[in-house]
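Bug: token stream looks shifted between consecutive jobs. Job 1:
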Amino acid sequence: MATPTTLPVVMSRPEVRVILSQLSGVPWLVGQLRIKDLDFDRHQILVLDHLEVGRRLHTLDLTQGRGAVTFPDAINRKYPGATKSWPWQFVFPAGRICRDARWGPPSRFHLHDTVIQREISRAARVAGLGTRVSCHTCRHSFATHVLQRGALGVQSPADRL
């Protein structure tokens, strides 16, 4: 494996907070979702307000003759009518209708990952951070902060001194 030519960027905790403060809507929710929001015993994610907004959007789509997700034919045969039912909809739906004939009639697909990436980059610019910030930077920073706190029994180099 080749040695990386650059060191990964690790934002400070205050820099992460300022990035998150610049987000709103779905990008904010994606950035704020924590393990504490996951109920493993009940197999639930506790994002009820967000889901209610999604349900209203789905209902609006249905009234306009849309609102069906795309499935492989085998699933369509096994669960007839599921394409328009609420439980089969995306948790993070796209902001606009997909009109690509390859996927069937116009429908609302899932939120594209570039939406979150653009919002993270925009938030970093608005916050005035001088470094390039991406979703990967956020993940890397989070993992570094977890290790610095001594999670998983691993100490950071500074803690060993």
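Job 2, same session, no restart:
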Amino acid sequence: MKVDIRDEAAAYYDYNPTAPDDIPFYIDRIPSPESALLELGCGTGRVTLALAGHCRFIQGIDLSPAMISICEAKLAEAGIPPSKAKVTVGDITDFGLGRTFDLIIAPFRVLQNLELESDVDGLFRSIRRHLAPGGACILNTFNPNRDRERLRREWTRESEELCWEVTLAGGRITCHDRCPRMDTEKLILYPELVYRRYEEEALRDETVLKLVVRCYYPDDLENLAAAHGFDVVGRWGGYGGEVYGEGPELVLQFAEGS
């Protein structure tokens, strides 16, 4: 089993106020109220819980036991039964659930966390095994805000920058990022998120989450789906009607190739 890099950081995920406003988008993509959905990289259940009331069943899978534990607690607290929503620990690059799904999604740039090409290949194989006839999959990445050469020159920095801060009773939580290194040939970024929890002004906890983020440009993502035998059936540049390749996100919907 792969190491749970989110073990200590999981407790901070639900404080993030910068999560995308993507829930209405995914609700609109559900084929019917009787559909079965699969969410890859479901994390603490931000999307899982929101979609559970709009489909017959949603299955979530995530590599992090810590994230799944939080998600299970939230499902129980919301009174959503296992017959309606279920989450499990698993590797999205190699899993078998013994059933198929009408819609498979991987929100909030899950695809970009796969560092190795073999893992990306494994993801697409797993998607194909779990797509029902006529089903579709939606993958999302960010749209790089500079060209490849500028990215290579400008991305790395050792200094921290504030991503977000939330105030709690008696304290606050902050999240900073730093960008210490990248693979300039493969355009893989290695950012670090630094979470800090304060009581008044006293630092009570500091957790560093070291991530892998593989960059995709618009053509890269479409070519990736085509190389794995899928047909692109929808593309968006974000969740507010942006044109693909012009907005902040790259959102691609694809189905089994003809």
